[in-house]
Design brief:
Blueprint lengths: L2 H15 L12 H10 L5 H14 L3 H5 L3 H7 L6 H19 L7 H4 L7 H12 L8 H9 L9 H11 L5 H14 L18 H7 L21
Helix pairs in contact: 1-11, 2-8, 5-6, 9-11
Length: 233
């Protein structure tokens, strides 16, 4: 089985496991999605959704975020990790949207990554989910699963993982694959206590095979990615 055949098997298996995988960040437009993804850096989607329930009622446009003192916005997102820097980035981002894009979120990837708090991963999520442009955003789940299944090397950077996935996955499946890899990593192939005994992809996972040996804790560790600052999402 060559690399593309292996990837096809992985994709088909994930499709059976998670046919309805989707973006779990609650949003109703590109602007809300951008804010939600910015907030999600080093924070769970569940926590972000709890915060944005009230946040998106209070702030509906970029102008609304700029109409309050920074300290007030900080308190509104206080439950989010790195809330101070994220609040600052939100206000800076909103100012740019108003001054440069007439208050609208730009559709091009290179324009998005110029916004404060929006890195490559965030831009990929926005263009794919808000504007229908195929993209693979590599978060911790996608990175972990890709390395465990041998799609990427253990010491590959996030960008290298993304490039390898883009090469192996048909373009029209990029966005859905992103969601299915996240669901697989979030609900099945967890960082701690992955469900190896019932995993249909165990035969492709060196770490899983090691775990399944008698008394077998894996000796293989995925190189930790350096924590990102709040403006690198």
């Amino acid at each position: 089985m060559n690399a593309k055949q292996k990837m096809r098997h992985i994709l088909d298996t994930l499709a059976e496991m998670f046919p309805d995988a989707h973006c779990e960040l609650h949003h109703s437009n590109p602007f809300e999605l951008t804010i939600a993804v910015l907030l999600s850096a080093q924070c769970t989607d569940e926590t972000v959704n709890k915060v944005t329930v009230n946040l998106f009622q209070k702030y509906k446009r970029p102008e609304d975020y700029l109409a309050v003192p920074l300290e007030e916005l900080e308190q509104d997102i206080r439950r989010i990790g790195l809330f101070r820097s994220k609040a600052s980035n939100i206000q800076k981002l909103c100012r740019i949207l108003i001054d440069k894009y007439e208050g609208e979120v730009p559709e091009r990837h290179e324009q998005l990554t110029e916004l404060p708090g929006v890195g490559r991963k965030t831009a990929n999520v926005v263009v794919s989910n808000a504007f229908g442009v195929p993209a693979i955003a590599v978060d911790t789940h996608v990175e972990r699963v890709s390395k465990r299944l041998g799609v990427a090397k253990l010491d590959d950077t996030v960008l290298e993982v993304e490039k390898k996935l883009m090469k192996l996955v048909p373009r029209e499946e990029w966005t859905l694959t992103h969601h299915r890899l996240i669901f697989f990593g979030r609900y099945h192939c967890k960082a701690q206590n992955p469900q190896c005994p019932i995993c249909p992809l165990l035969d492709m996972c060196k770490e899983g095979k090691q775990r399944m040996k008698p008394g077998g804790q894996t000796k293989t560790k995925i190189k930790a990615t350096k924590p990102k600052k709040a403006n690198e999402g």
